[in-house]
């Protein structure tokens, strides 16, 4: 998520991925996202299914291997090394399946090592599994199914003929029912607390590049139906300044039902993303959950962009874009030593029973995304 953003929350302009339309982006390719039928006839699952909060026990983590120079440029070594590092780290705690194209699967196996399972039966365009992968749901009684969010390349900004089919193909691979949601979106655009409450930015979803003609009320109904929720907490977000139109998972996250976290900017930051983050904190602090409970909101201090390692203007330094797996929280460090240490301490306090792993993923950050953006959890049924 996330994301293949170009400067999303990075304050200093857009990078090379901002308005990329890679070769192969056609109307036919985009149409794949809305016409495919799901496993088991795409029959809708019962309303008792819902997307659980992310810290439940996982069966495995799903990831995708980047290999397209049309998207990442001629040197793929940095982003591939980052993806391999994330996969190997998660694999210390739970199984990881990496989807790779057949002509790059051997390289993925070599870089990821024996602890990561690489398959070449689910082809991909890019590495953003949070957005392209299926959203898994459970029913609390041993049932598991999936929902696809009709991925369309973040509003037809990038080629996605393969990625549009990833969600359905993963559902088929694990042999669980698949349905397609009644709206277009991405996993990084929606956060869920597992107990009926969602949060999202209008900029990512109430947007003609995803859902033309749909009102906010109609979207809310479709989102709640897909996620098994009853309420959406909306933030305005930031339109048109990055490829995702400001995904929520780089700024605000659910920790548990009634408990959320917001990454806060420096007091001196006053760009659109900083204003958006402060407003997200204000809205969450005044919100209630789908069951009417008050919301507790924690703060996670962001880095000083003048002190991080990267000088790329589109770099995303999102501590909040962490991934919770079995027994660990996989996060990032960016070179602002004080902020890195403070973020790790905050996460350790919020997840006291998990190991906090901080990784250098600067190449991925240069692409505008983070660890949550490239992972998708499959919860235990």
TrEMBL record:
One Pfam short name: PAD_porph
Any GO BP: putrescine biosynthetic process
GO molecular function, one term: protein-arginine deiminase activity
Keywords, comma-separated and alphabetical: Hydrolase, Signal
Signal peptide boundaries: 1-33
Top-level taxon of origin: Bacteria
UniProt protein name: Agmatine deiminase family protein
